[in-house]
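Hi all, long-time lurker, first post. I run a small reading group and we've been trying to get comfortable going from sequence to structure in the token notation. Rather than ask abstract questions, I figured I'd post a concrete chain and ask someone more experienced to write out its structure so we can walk through it together at our next meeting. Sequence below, copied exactly:
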Amino acid sequence: MVMLFHSVGLAQCVNPQNYIVFFPSYYRCIVVGSSETGLTRRRQALEQVDSELSSGDERTALSLVKDLQGKPGGLRCFGAARQVPQRLYTLDELKLNGINAASLLSPTDATLGSIERNLQIAGVSGGIVAWKALDLSSQQLFFISLGLLFLWTLDLVSFNGGIGSLVLDTIGHTFSQRYHNRVVQHEAGHFLVAYLVGILPRGFTLSSLEAFQKEGSLNIQAGSAFVDFEFLEEVNGGKVSATMLNRFSCIALAGVATEYLLYGYAEGGLDDISKLDSLVKSLGFTQKKADSQVRWSVLNTILLLRRHEVARSKLAEAMSKGESVGSCIQVIEDSIDPSDI
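-- Answer (accepted) --
Happy to help. Here is the structure in token form:
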């Protein structure tokens, strides 16, 4: 039902979904109502997307997203990123755009490294204190050390270091706000760039503990997952299209690119870079062609993240609250002005 408010001059339109607000002092009118209908439709569709992703039906989820792609009141930003022309960019051209490739592509996790060293020092110090306090014999100390060495080896062999990584990452998130923030921003970069280049995020975890709770495996670290069956089909078919390679190259570098923009260097993401390197090598790229692919991806990803800094920041906040994929997509769509796509 449409109500009439004489104080602002509200009148009914021919279309029952809309109404017109007249502002007599400015002699103009604004059509409202249709946007609310579009937003409601989008919200309902994204709730269905969440439902399909939860049930594991990625194809239906992607189909729902593509049905709303680029439509009024739909998903304007999905796959709509403005990208730089693809060609061979030199390192000097990257520097002209404020990009130091060495700092971006050589991440070293100094935060966790520092925490690990401190734990080792604390462990040795605690062992010495326990040895003196409990008056342990040399033989007892030997067997305790041997037992600890066995547990460490068992973790490496059976769980690929998963238990140690879980403990270290949990301590990092608990005692280092900087580390926690960096991980959140890193994953927000992956999520945002993936969505903008047309790859649907499937889910994300922000800590090894959260990944363990969701997946029940110690070999899974925190990270973002994507609806990538189209990519895998191309890989299994022995031929990856340039479009698909470009998309996943940018996604792979989005985390380290986000850290670089925020902190001037990257700590996490070494595994992302290694996977991209393995991919281009598996495709038979020459070193020159591989360098060209990586440099274009770096430039394209950095410019995307710079252009949509506000969206990335709001997305990171939503992800840190544990919002669903659909809710995070809603944040992106609400944060990006149509003229900025």
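A couple of things your group might point at:
The beta strands are 10-12, 19-23, 28-32, 201-205, 223-226.
Residues 2 and 16 are 8 Å apart (CA to CA).
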